[in-house]
């Protein structure tokens, strides 16, 4: 096969910021985020969809960035782990993870966070079983998952409480 | 994409069908359901039309990979990838679905029984794409079940079974379907089991007996799972699927004959 690096220019939004970049047509979205945009919070483990570390939010839906080409993101909006906090204030799920030993090495964490943020958006009151099913596609070698489940339930409670205060 | 990443396939051209709006959507036309090839697994999972008309598919979808893969994965992709253990492939076999294909010579329809040309190989030309899957709606009283055995939730099934049973007012089976995924190179319809069920009064004993007929099914073995274990699972999954389908089947006087 020839190694011609044919490129296309893509326009997309990542964490609210608009980018316009030429990309090689066979570049994976995960590599684009890490190598081109230098958003190295998105991790890559297996690069074939199994480990979940590369999970991002694509138009608000969790998706594997290693299973998409960068050109497919043209015209779409992406949220990576870097986009979850508001300024210096961490997302309630990030705070809860650090309190509950929900991470150790942190390799799986970006994928856990994006997946669980989607879950909490869809279902503000998940059960422990709902959380386990949601992260069934995210491998963690360190925590044994218990802390992640506990943190998610706690974050859900805090988010419900602050939503209640606001309304 | 995993096939590209692992260099199992080295295509000169990759065409993204995501922006072809005509290929997406779920439509009920009378007693038929039509699903566009690019309809996402997620949209099928949460579709009220599918839940009403084909709860078998809704149940199967909860086993298809994970939330993050269902958000992007499509029914056409599942069918064309044609993994013998893919849940939607097994369901399409159970439903006697029809695959519509479009190519330079126009459209043609392929009955699902003829769709797999072999292991992971759909019987379509490289100039063709799958555009739609259609299948008939079964009566509301139908009992259905999709069960599978896998090592972890979200893994491809080692063996899966899809069953549907329709009973008449006297509890006699008027229609029966049993399809097995993961056992052989392509999904299997267990026609001899179906024939042994039809016309009989449904009971747990009957199901126990006919499920045993799967013991001799031709099964593939691999480094993880010997063929004999797949044959064993074929019996167990068939029994579980048929039992659950029976427990859900409402008696329908209209179906009596
Ligand atoms: C971690 C992981 C776990 C998974 N677990 C399961 C599981 O348990 N069960 C299961 O069934 N699947 C599972 N999958 C597969 C997943 O369901 C994919 O969605 C599915 O393989 C199809 O992907 P896709 O729709 O993106 O199609 P693609 O990957 O884009 O395409 C798959 C193949 O079909 C061809 N194709 C796609 N659409 C068409 C068309 N319209 N016409 C002609 N050819 C077409 C493509 O050229 C390609 O060869 C899993 C995947 C991952 C990554
Ligand atoms: S790197 Fe994408 S799922 Fe493992
Ligand atoms: S914290 Fe190390 S892999 Fe999950």
Q: What's the arrangement of strands in the largest beta sheet of chain A?
A: 2-1-5-3-4
What is the domain total for the residues of chain B? 2
Largest sheet of chain B: 5 strands, antiparallel
Oligomer: heterodimer
Bound molecules: flavin-adenine dinucleotide, FE2/S2 (inorganic) cluster
User: Distance N terminus to C terminus of chain A?
Assistant: 60 Å
CATH architecture of the largest domain in chain B: 2-Layer Sandwich
Give the class-level CATH name of the largest domain in chain B: Alpha Beta
User: What is the residue-averaged pLDDT of chain B?
Assistant: 94
CATH topology of the largest domain in chain A: Ubiquitin-like (UB roll)
Q: Measured on Cα atoms, how large is the radius of gyration of chain A?
A: 17 Å
Order of helices and strands of chain B: HEEHHHHHHEEEEEEEEEHHH
CATH level-four homologous superfamily name of the largest domain in chain A: Beta-grasp domain
User: Uncertain regions of chain A: pLDDT < 50 for 5+ in a row?
Assistant: none
Count up the helices of chain B: 10
How many beta strands in the DSSP annotation of chain A? Answer: 5
Explain the overall architecture.
The complex is a heterodimer of chains A (167) and B (257). Chain A is α+β, with helices and mostly antiparallel strands. Chain A folds into 2 domains: 7-83, Beta-grasp domain (Ubiquitin-like (UB roll), Roll); 92-166, [2Fe-2S]-binding domain (DNA polymerase, domain 1, Orthogonal Bundle). Helix content of chain A is 35%, strand content 16%. Chain A is built from 5 helices and 5 strands. In chain A, strands 2-1-5-3-4 form a 5-stranded mixed beta sheet, covered by helices on one side. In chain A, a hairpin with a 2-residue loop joins strand 1 (7-14) and strand 2 (17-24). Chain A is globular and about 50 Å long. The model of chain A has no long low-confidence stretch (mean pLDDT 95). Chain B has 257 residues and is an alpha+beta fold. Chain B folds into 2 domains: 2-136, 2-Layer Sandwich (Uridine Diphospho-n-acetylenolpyruvylglucosamine Reductase, domain 3); 143-256, CO dehydrogenase flavoprotein, C-terminal domain (Enolase-like, domain 1). Chain B is 30% helix and 24% strand. Chain B contains 10 helices and 11 strands. Chain B has helices at 2-5, 41-45, 48-53, 55-61, 67-70, 75-81, 87-94, 191-197, 204-211, 227-248, and strands at residues 26-29, 32-36, 98-103, 106-111, 116-118, 121-122, 129-136, 143-149, 159-167, 173-181, 188-189. Chain B has a 5-stranded antiparallel beta sheet with strand order 1-2-7-3-4. In chain B, strand 9 and strand 10 (173-181) form a beta hairpin. In chain B, helix 9 runs antiparallel to helix 10 (227-248). Mean pLDDT of chain B is 94; it is low at 252-257. The A-B interface holds A 1, 25-26, 28, 47-49, 52, 55, 58, 61-64, 66-69, 71-72, 115, 118-119, 133-134, 136-137 and B 1-2, 4-6, 10, 12, 14, 16, 18, 42, 65-69, 71-72, 152-154. The complex binds flavin-adenine dinucleotide (FAD) and FE2/S2 (inorganic) cluster (FES) (2 copies).
């Amino acid at each position: 096969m020839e190694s011609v690096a044919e490129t296309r220019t893509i326009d997309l939004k990542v964490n609210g910021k608009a980018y316009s970049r030429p990309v090689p047509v066979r570049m994976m979205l995960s590599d684009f985020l890490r190598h081109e945009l230098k958003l190295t919070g998105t991790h890559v483990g297996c690069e074939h969809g199994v480990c979940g570390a590369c999970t991002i939010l694509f138009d608000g839906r969790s998706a594997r960035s290693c299973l998409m080409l960068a050109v497919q993101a043209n015209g779409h909006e992406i949220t990576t782990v870097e986009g979850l906090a508001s300024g210096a204030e961490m997302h309630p799920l990030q705070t809860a993870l650090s309190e509950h030993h929900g991470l150790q090495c942190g390799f799986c964490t970006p994928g856990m966070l994006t997946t669980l943020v989607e879950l909490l958006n869809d279902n503000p009151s998940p059960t422990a079983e709902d959380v386990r099913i949601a992260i069934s596609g995210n491998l963690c070698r360190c925590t044994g998952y218990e802390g992640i489940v506990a943190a998610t339930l706690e974050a859900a409670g805090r988010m419900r409480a602050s939503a209640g205060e606001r309304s | 994409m995993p096939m590209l990443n692992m260099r199992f396939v080295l295509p000169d051209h990759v065409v993204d069908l995501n922006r072809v709006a005509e290929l997406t959507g779920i439509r009920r036309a009378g007693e038929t359901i039509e699903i566009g090839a690019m309809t996402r697994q997620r949209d099928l999972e949460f579709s009220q039309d599918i839940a009403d008309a084909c709860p078998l598919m809704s149940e199967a979808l909860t086993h298809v990979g994970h939330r993050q893969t269902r958000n992007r994965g499509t029914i056409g992709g599942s069918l064309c990838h044609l993994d013998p253990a893919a849940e939607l492939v097994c369901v399409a076999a159970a439903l006697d679905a029809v695959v519509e294909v479009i190519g330079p010579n126009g459209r043609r329809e392929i009955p699902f029984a003829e769709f797999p040309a072999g292991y992971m190989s759909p019987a379509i030309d490289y100039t063709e794409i799958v555009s739609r899957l259609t299948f008939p709606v079964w009566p509301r009283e139908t009992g259905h079940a999709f069960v599978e055995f896998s090592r972890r939730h979200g893994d491809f099934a080692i063996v899966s079974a899809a069953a549907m049973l329709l009973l008449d007012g006297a509890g006699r089976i008027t229609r029966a379907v049993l399809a097995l995924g993961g056992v052989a190179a392509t999904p299997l319809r267990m026609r001899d089991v179906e024939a042994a069920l039809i016309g009989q009064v449904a009971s747990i004993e009957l199901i126990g007996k006919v499920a045993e007929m799967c013991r001799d099914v031709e099964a593939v073995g691999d480094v993880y799972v010997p063929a004999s274990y797949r044959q064993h699972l074929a019996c167990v999954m068939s029994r579980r699927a048929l039992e659950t389908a029976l427990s859900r089947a409402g008696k329908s006087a209209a179906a009596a004959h």
